[in-house]
Design a protein that fits this description.
Layout (H helix, E strand, L loop, with lengths): L5 H9 L11 E7 L10 E7 L2 E9 L4 H5 L9 E4 L3 E12 L3 E6 L3 E6 L13 E3 L5 E3 L20 E3 L2 H11 L5 E7 L2
Parallel strand pairs: 1-11, 9-10
Antiparallel strand pairs: 1-2, 2-3, 3-10, 4-7, 5-6, 5-11, 7-8
């Protein structure tokens, strides 16, 4: 993925149809890689406070092997694929992912598709849906020890997942007890 200037990123998110304002508090920006390597962490997340850049971290905005190839074990309609180039204001709140790890958990509806074709690519196909379906922001291990995951596997079946625990917990600690966290998801441009 290419490097972006902060002004390029802010200009891009302000150009989206769903944009109405940059949140004054902490918010996350996800950038989905054009390459979309199957089952690998090749996306980026940026933490902002208002228009101030705080930090970036690696992760995935896509489902991994389990989500794309074995979705029938948890949802017969297909794997959740979040609609890109969209703002999701007040999407998350602090909580626990699967009651096991500190995370940002879904608190308001998100737009998504169901990818059912099992072709190793995350695709925005079919009918656009909206709802609260457990799309959380979390890391790729239940351990709090330093760890960098290489493969997504079952860690995302729609969730937005950081693969470096050190960076992930820095984001959570920075956000602290902020009650709502907005998210913007864009494609690499």
């Amino acid at each position: 993925m290419r490097e972006y200037s902060i002004s390029e990123l802010l200009e891009k998110v302000k150009s989206l149809k769903s944009f109405y304002s940059i949140p004054n508090n902490y918010w996350l920006l996800g950038i989905q890689s054009k390459e979309d390597k199957f089952n690998e962490f090749d996306d980026m997340f940026y933490l902002f406070k208002g228009e101030e850049y705080i930090m970036k971290l690696t992760g995935t905005t896509n489902a991994g092997l389990t989500g794309l190839k074995s979705y029938h074990t948890y949802n017969k309609e297909g794997c959740a694929v979040i609609k890109t180039d969209e703002w999701y204001y007040n999407l998350w709140k602090p909580g626990k992912h699967k009651a096991k790890m500190r995370a940002l958990i879904q608190a308001s509806p998100i737009k998504y598709y169901r990818d059912w074709n099992k072709n190793s690519k995350v695709e925005e196909v079919g009918n656009l849906k909206s709802g609260i379906i457990g799309i959380n922001f979390h890391t790729a291990t239940y351990s709090t020890s330093p760890y960098i995951a290489k493969f997504i596997n079952g860690w995302s079946t729609g969730c937005q997942v950081a693969n470096n625990t050190t960076d992930y917990f820095e984001v959570l600690n920075t956000i602290g007890n902020q009650d709502k966290i907005s998210y913007c998801l864009i494609k690499e441009f």
